[in-house]
Amino acid sequence: xxxxxxxxxxxxxxxxxxxxxxxxxxxxxxxxxxxxxxxxxxxxxxxxxxxxxxxxxxxxxxxxxxxxxxxxxxxxxxxxxxxxxxxxxxxxxxxxxxxxxxxxxxxxxxxxxxxxxxxxxxxxxxxxxxxxxxxxxxxxxxxxxxxxxxxxxxxxxxxxxxxxxxxxxxxxxxxxxxxxxxxxxxxxxxxxxxxxxxxxxxxxxxxxxxxxxxxxxxxxxxxxxxxxxxxxxxxxxxxxxxxxxxxxxxxxxxxxxxx
Length: 259
Known about the structure:
- This protein is α/β, with parallel strands linked by helices.
- It has a domain at about 15-135: TIM Barrel (Alpha-Beta Barrel).
- It has helices at about 15-30, 45-55, 80-85, 90-100, 120-130, 135-140, 165-170, 175-195, 225, 240-250, and strands spanning about 35-40, 65, 110-115, 130-135, 210-215, 220.
- The strands form two sheets. The protein has a four-stranded parallel beta sheet, with helices on one face. A two-stranded antiparallel sheet has the order 5-6.
- It is globular.
- Residues about 250-259 have low confidence and may be disordered.
C-alpha cells in the first residue's frame, strides 16, 4: 500500500521469443504442468518467430490466449485499455495463421478473450480457431457491475473492484453466485443452439465456412476469405470430430450442411 505498481511490467526472465521458450521449458520441467502465454496483439513478427522456433527446435507453449483490444481489465492504465492492441478478430486471426502456416495449430490450445461472452461472438471465435473462450465482462454484469468505469480508482460503487468493506457489501455471494451460474448455463445452451443451426452438434465443429461477414452495402463474404484462412483450417481432426459427436450423443443426427 502506498507504492506505485508498474503496470504493465517488463519481463525480467526473457527478452524475445527464443529466451521465452527457454523459460517456458524451465517452468514445465519444474512443475510438470502445461505452460502457456496470454497476450494482446500489436504486431505479427513475434508470433511468426515463435511459431518458427516451435516448429524447428522442439520447444513450445501448450496454450495461447489472445486478448482483444476491446476487452481488458478496468484496473489497467487508461491509455492502454483505450488505445493498445488490435481488436480480437484481427489479432487472433493473425496469431492463428502464424501457427497454421507452421503446421502447429493442432498442437496448441487457443483461447480467445475480449467481449466474447455473447453467443454469436463466442461462436465466431470458435469458427476462427479458438478451442475455448474467456468470459469476464458479462459475468461481472451478472454480479452487478454497472460499468461505472471506476475500477482503477478503488471506489467501485457495486463492490467488485474495491478494498472498501462498506462497498464490498454490494457483493452478496448467495444471490450473485446464482446469477453468474445462470448466465453461464444459458451462454452454453445458446452456443449449442447456434451450432445446431449451422448443422453441427458442438461449437468446436463450426468452421469458417459456416459464417459470413456482412458489410454496409448488403454484401456477404465468407469468414475464411475475410481473414485469409486456407481450406481445412479451424477444423478438428477426423478422430477428434468423431469423438466430439460421440460425446454429444448426436452422431449422425445433424447434417453437415451450413445455415
